[in-house]
Specification:
Elements (H helix, E strand, L loop, with lengths): L1 H14 L1 H28 L11 E6 L20 H10 L4 E13 L8 E8 L2 H5 L4 E4 L4 H5 L4 E5 H8 L8 E4 L2 E9 L23 E4 L25 H6 L6 E5 L3 H19 L10 E4 L1 H7 L5 H31 L1 H9 L4 H37 L11 H27 L3 H5 L3
Parallel strand pairs: 3-8, 5-7
Antiparallel strand pairs: 1-9, 1-10, 2-3, 2-6, 2-9, 4-7, 5-8, 6-7
Helix pairs in contact: 1-12, 2-10, 2-12, 2-13, 10-13, 12-13
Length: about 425
């Protein structure tokens, strides 16, 4: 029976090609607009560290101007001075400690004739790789001893490993960074990417993963170019790298992992004792003196999902409803034109349910065509987003949620746009149309 209904539906659509095309386009446009915005919203609103939300914390210390509070976020500086980050690292209380910054290095392979280029580099401590679930395809992170006594070792991204080593295991090989030889200890999979980059929202939250990772405490040996943010609240006489490390400039993102309530309390007590000591030296004069933020809180503080984004999502649903209403009106007009035919079929013995399901099948065909076309339009929309905003290059893509949404939207569109016209014509009175035949 369903095959019979499907054949009748296709015959009906061929009789009115322009009207059918308008209905398909109406549904496709609504689904494409909604699906594109829904995809972007689902990406930017996710918390990739939700499974560790109760034990990871971004550390904020309020070393800012005693006369004027920090003007953005939650009025506490999001980054730390070197002095404070080093104190937290040396406390040896947290289960894991990460101190890091964004920088760049000029990379060249000794045997290559290619000109050296600058690459996005993250200077970090070893725990970065376990704290943020970094996936390796070769080797692994450097040892704890390297953090305490910095050595020239490097972890490469898979893309950079493909470029310089043709995708082979480069562990143990050397590569030239800023004119110095570094030994490769690991290669990170290109499939690893936190979206958003919760660990460093101070820079672009949807930026691609770093190309290179090197030990953070190499900063004690020389100056590295800054690709992140450095802020200060008064003029300081900074002439050397040692002056910079001693200064009140904030430039380090710091995270800790505290795996139990006891650890959390112990670390909080350490911060309170440390701040009390620093107060005697004229620092930490503002309240609150510190804050520990879970990944979810960190995303909210940085307003990764803006109010505009939420309003745009609501408007996309309104637009979808308008498109579905237009499709419903067009479908109702078409079905009512076929009312005499339905009346004759009813007079010949066809049941109301038979008429209803025949026309609901036609609505389903139109809805399915609209959904498929809307999916293609949405792919084009996401490609446009990637073209306009390079930082969305790795995130403006379909995922399981959006594909499921496309299926649900297609079913909803079919039911919403086809139910009323199909119900209306199934209740047509046969006698009314028999008189006119």
């Amino acid at each position: 029976m369903w095959k019979y209904y499907l054949r009748l539906s296709l015959q009906s659509l061929r009789k009115t090609p322009i009207l059918s095309l308008l209905m398909v386009l109406a549904i496709a446009t609504g689904i494409a607009a909604n699906l594109t915005i829904l995809t972007m919203h689902s990406v930017v609103s996710g918390n990739p560290l939700a499974h560790k939300n109760e034990r990871l914390f971004a550390v904020q210390l309020n070393t800012w101007n005693p006369e004027q509070e920090y003007s953005t976020h939650n009025n506490i500086p999001p980054q730390l001075t070197y002095k404070d980050a080093k104190a937290i690292y040396d406390s040896d209380i947290a289960n894991e400690v990460v101190a890091m910054r964004k920088t760049n290095v000029i990379i060249k392979r000794q045997e290559s004739a290619e000109a050296p280029s600058a690459y996005y580099t993250r200077m970090t401590t070893r725990d970065f790789f376990t704290m943020f679930d970094v996936r390796f395809i070769y080797g692994g992170p450097w040892s704890n001893e390297v953090d305490n006594n910095p050595e020239r070792v490097v972890v490469l991204s898979e893309g950079l490993n493909n470029k310089f080593f043709d995708g082979a295991d480069s562990s143990g090989q050397t590569i030239e960074l800023d004119g110095e030889l570094f030994r490769v200890v690991g290669v990170v999979s290109e499939k690893w990417q936190l979206v958003p980059n919760v660990y460093d929202l101070n820079n672009m939250p949807f930026e691609a993963a770093p190309d290179v990772y090197i030990p953070f405490f190499l900063v004690t040996q020389r100056t590295y170019q800054n690709w992140g943010n450095i802020q200060g609240w008064f003029d300081e006489n900074v002439k050397t790298n040692e002056d910079f490390l001693r200064s009140e400039k904030i430039w380090i993102q710091t995270w800790v992992s505290l795996n139990s309530t006891e650890k959390y309390q112990e670390f909080s007590q350490f911060l309170e004792n440390y701040i009390a000591t620093q107060k005697e030296q004229g620092r930490f004069k503002r309240l609150p003196a510190y804050k520990l933020n879970t990944p979810e809180e960190w995303l909210k503080i940085y307003k990764v999902v803006s109010t505009d984004n939420k309003q745009l999502l609501m408007l996309s649903f309104v637009f979808l409803m308008i498109c579905l209403v237009n499709s419903t009106v067009l479908m109702l007009a078409k079905f009512l034109r076929k009312a005499p035919e339905a009346g004759i079929r009813r007079a010949l013995g066809a049941s109301r349910s038979s008429i209803f399901f025949q026309h609901l099948m036609e609505a389903f065909v139109i809805g399915a065509a609209g959904a498929i076309l809307g999916l293609l339009f949405s792919l084009a929309g996401l490609a446009s987003v990637r073209e306009l905003y390079s930082s969305y290059e790795s995130v403006a893509v379909f995922n399981g949620i959006t594909v499921l949404s496309a299926v649900l939207l297609a079913l909803a569109a079919t039911l919403l746009s086809g139910f009323l016209p199909a119900w209306r014509i199934s209740h047509a009175t046969p006698a009314k149309y028999l008189k006119t035949q």
